[in-house]
Specification:
Blueprint: H1 2-13, E1 22-26, H2 28-33, H3 36-73, H4 79-104, H5 109-136, E2 138-143, H6 160-167, H7 180-189
Parallel strand pairs: 1-2
Helix pairs in contact: 3-4, 3-5, 5-6
């Protein structure tokens, strides 16, 4: 009985502000899709990945031709030449796999290029979200994109458009539209928004 009284008294004295915390959500996929710099960076990444993929496909096609030619001639070759050709084909295949890993493996060139192109944009978005959270007094802001854990969010709590506005972009803007005037306006009124 004393425990119940203690719990009730404790709950009565907890400040109501704990229960009245403000929160909001953003959709980072929506925000990024409305930033022309992000679209251009993604396009640049796609082109680079396609170029590397074509290079690798050419190498593997060359290896395939060598292997087929070897199979046709193998019965005519002495054992020492067979081993030598097998080793040459295996070495070329190893080189191609190493190149594939260099380009597309974990921490590879594509990951490094993505980090180089995307991180500055993502940092600007994060800083805008953090600034909105501080200015509006939000206790937390959730990202509703790509997550199955957030099942419902009222539109009144979605501050994605505010983030875009703070960054100087408009939803649905074409990638080629000039945002210089808007950016200059934002930078003048907010020195923290200046691009690094």
């Amino acid at each position: 009985m004393n425990r119940i009284r203690y719990i009730i008294l404790t709950l009565l004295f907890i400040p109501m502000s704990v229960f009245a915390q403000k929160y909001a959500c953003v959709n980072t996929q929506y925000i990024l899709s409305n930033i022309p710099d992000y679209s251009r960076a993604q396009s640049q990444l796609d082109k680079q990945a396609e170029s590397w993929q074509k290079e690798l496909e050419a190498k593997f096609q060359e290896i395939d031709k060598l292997y087929k030619a070897f199979q046709q001639e193998a019965y005519l070759l002495p054992d020492n030449l067979k081993r030598k050709r097998e080793e040459e084909i295996a070495a070329k295949e190893r080189e191609a796999r190493e190149l594939q890993n260099k380009y597309f493996g974990p921490g590879g060139d594509l990951d490094k290029k993505r980090e180089e192109l995307m991180k500055p944009i993502q940092d600007r978005v994060y800083n805008a979200i953090e600034r909105i959270a501080n200015e509006k007094g939000y206790a937390f802001i959730l990202d509703k994109s790509g997550s199955a854990t957030l099942l419902f969010v009222s539109a009144k709590y979605d501050v994605s458009d505010q983030v875009l506005d703070m960054l100087g972009y408009k939803a649905g803007a074409k990638p080629d539209e000039d945002k210089e005037a808007t950016t200059r306006k934002k930078e003048v009124s907010n020195p923290e928004m200046r691009k690094p």
